[in-house]
């Protein structure tokens, strides 16, 4: 279940309570009159079954609560209540299959920002890939996959395409378009310094070894990217968030970028170009599959207009 808190003008409180009571998936309704200071108003709290959340939020936004007050949602890890059990049973569908569109939009919007944290993680992931390449270490490569933050913007592009939120698409595309070149450039500089200082032997760095699959583009590259994109979006739109770790490990987006930087410094342009092609295949495959999964879950009439601009915080 999700915990909902709404701050609403006093003159709309009765309408908000009526909207909550009309939804069978809502329970534990609490009213605190005059408790809100900024913005001024009443505070209404409730626990909502995940599969009923989207309809409840839509009802509150139709009353203007999002404009003149505020609506927040928090995940409830444990709820010991017969009333909560009845609410979940009464709500249509299954909680694991429900898509809370406002939650998804807020989450992908947050993860699609081009900022110092995103660039730092992406750069570290590419540098780890460079270390994995010159040491022929699959374990280090897996670490680079897990550290890489690129799935956030990829998911954001998919959400933006399905919901026609072009502002989200532009922001996520900018994060990827700026982030990968910066990370690859820093990785190239690090590789050049390592080769010049004797940290590794350039002649042996790209010799045939266990990591060649990173730049070997083939039909399975696209298949894996499609499956990873589908699994990632299913994870983000359900309560199965732990599956995202498997998604990170399965696709070679960051490894391909790091491999391309190393190959470019060492003058192996064929490997560099193959790695870039691998990167492109993975990026496109993940976005296409994630968008298709989300489109299939975007049933007619399920999504209201989510047209508010994305926040900057």
TrEMBL record:
Q: Which InterPro entries match?
A: DUF389
Tell me the Pfam families matching this sequence: DUF389
Q: Which domain of life is it from?
A: Bacteria
Q: List UniProt keywords, sorted A-Z.
A: Membrane, Transmembrane, Transmembrane helix
Keyword Transmembrane helix among record annotations:
yes
Task: Give the transmembrane ranges.
Answer: 114-135, 141-163, 172-193, 213-235, 242-269, 275-296
Task: Establish whether keyword Cell inner membrane is in the entry.
Answer: no
PANTHER family associated with the record: AT15442P-RELATED
Protein name in the entry? Putative hydrophobic protein (TIGR00271 family)
Query: Where does this protein come from, organism-wise?
Result: Saccharothrix carnea
């Amino acid at each position: 279940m999700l915990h909902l808190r709404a701050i609403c003008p006093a003159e709309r409180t009765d309408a908000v309570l009526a909207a909550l009571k009309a939804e069978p998936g809502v329970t534990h309704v609490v009213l605190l009159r005059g408790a809100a200071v900024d913005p001024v108003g009443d505070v209404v709290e409730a626990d909502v079954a995940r599969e009923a959340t989207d309809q409840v939020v839509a009802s509150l936004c139709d009353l203007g609560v999002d404009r003149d007050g505020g609506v927040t949602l928090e995940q409830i890890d444990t709820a010991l209540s017969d009333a909560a059990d009845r609410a979940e049973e009464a709500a249509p569908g299954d909680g694991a299959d429900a898509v809370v569109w406002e939650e998804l939009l807020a989450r992908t919007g947050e993860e699609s920002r081009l900022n110092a944290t995103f660039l730092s993680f992406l750069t570290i992931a590419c540098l780890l890939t460079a270390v994995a390449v010159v040491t022929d270490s699959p374990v280090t490569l897996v670490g680079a996959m897990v550290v890489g933050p690129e799935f956030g913007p990829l998911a954001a592009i998919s959400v933006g395409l399905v919901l026609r939120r072009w502002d989200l698409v532009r922001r996520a595309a900018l994060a990827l378009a700026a982030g990968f070149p910066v990370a690859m450039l820093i990785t190239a500089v690090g590789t050049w310094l390592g080769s010049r200082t004797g940290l590794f032997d350039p002649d042996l760095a790209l010799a045939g070894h266990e990591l060649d699959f990173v730049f070997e583009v083939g039909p399975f590259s696209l298949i894996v990217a499609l499956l990873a994109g589908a699994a990632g979006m299913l994870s983000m739109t359900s309560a199965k968030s732990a599956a995202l770790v498997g998604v990170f490990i399965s696709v070679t987006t960051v490894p391909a970028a790091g491999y391309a930087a190393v190959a470019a410094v060492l003058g192996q342009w064929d490997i560099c170009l193959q790695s870039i092609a691998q990167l492109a295949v993975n990026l496109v495959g993940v976005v296409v599959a994630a968008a298709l999964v989300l489109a299939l879950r975007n049933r007619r009439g399920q999504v209201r207009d989510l047209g508010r601009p994305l926040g900057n915080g």
